Amino acid sequence: MNPSVPNSNIGQTIRFACTFVLLLLLSACAAIKPVQVNFQPQRYDHYFPGFEATDIVPDAQIFWLNNDAKAYVRERAALAETTDDKALTLINDLFSPSQLALDYVYGANTVAQETFDNGTANCLSLTILAYAMAEEAGLEVSFQEVFEDESWNQAGEFDLANGHVNLLIARKPRFSQVPGLPSRKLTYTVDFFPESREGRVKTKQLSQTAIKSYFYSNLGAKALIEEDYNKAWANFRQALLLYPRDSSAWNNLALLLSRKNANSEAVYAFKVATELRPDNYTAWENLAGLYRKIDNTEDADQISQRLTRVRNKNPNYHVRMGNRYLVNGEYEQAESAFYASLRLQQNNHYAWFGLARVAAEQEDEESVRRYLNKARETADSEGFARRYSRKLHALNASL
Prior knowledge:
The chain is α/β, with parallel strands linked by helices. Among the domains are: 59-209, Roll (C8orf32 fold), CATH 3.10.620; 315-397, Serine Threonine Protein Phosphatase 5, Tetratricopeptide repeat (Alpha Horseshoe), CATH 1.25.40.10. The protein is 52% helix and 10% strand. The strands form 3 sheets. The protein has a 4-stranded antiparallel sheet. The protein has a 3-stranded mixed sheet with strand order 1-6-5. It has a two-stranded parallel ribbon with strand order 2-3. A hairpin with a 2-residue loop joins strand 5 and strand 6. The radius of gyration is 22 Å and the shape is globular. Mean pLDDT is 86; it is low at 1-10, 19-33 and 174-178.
């Protein structure tokens, strides 16, 4: 496999918001065009006969909390004397072992009440629960999307491109010391991985409607992976009815249409996704893959060359390529890809873990141990650190 050609031997890419939505957001400088979008669901309904019988999560249930959960929020908020204390109490409760103690689970795309009951969440479901709790406590809250380098997870033939959203809770304003200047608005951020980003990052405020669209798009992406195409369409349909400008949902819909061999409709949907977000590299990559399928190699190659120039600067892209090489048994190329990632970002624990996997295939136990230790030291969350520790313990116990 040629690492300079992103589509070579790489499965189609679904995009999950914070876990499943598909809206790739790299180039921070890319302009967002004022594209006019007219989503007409009847244009696609006939590809999915009987989809109307599919049950989807009711819109009103996404942020709903039952009386017990509301009572918990009110009881905890009553312990705080100030607005800031109230916000901090609720934020800390989300992660405190003595309170809700939420654990990160990549596929836990759940409504607020289910997240509250189960104690597991991805970043989107955490954000939904935190919003519902903050509103119940009478706090001022808002959503924002965080624009980061592309990163991926794998699910069979699909690469899952990750998006990221978090929540802002308003604090008491800090008044300006300069007469005539407005007070400065301060916020607390609720985020599973705040330490994973270095320096300033680009963000964009999101509406509750956009968050709901991301939620349905995630559910649709999961159904697409499971080849339940009617369920996938029912959820993508709802996502785009709510928020037709959801580039990720258009990308996912295009993938679904390509599975139905509705190739011209899929090309159209990919183009809408890229017009809405010119930096949606997931949609561009998928469009190139579809062009190859229909023998439009010229346009496919042009897209791939552009993507390679952008992605070669992204350490996560080299991890993705390394994982692909590993799957194909090309260990030398995998090792080179992981080292390429580390040259760009030395604390990329995914790359160190990738090297440990290569060493394991080569039965080099000393190197496995060394690379797992590096992965543990550079892990950007307690969950990953524990995962690498368990693998080290298992390795040591086997000797």
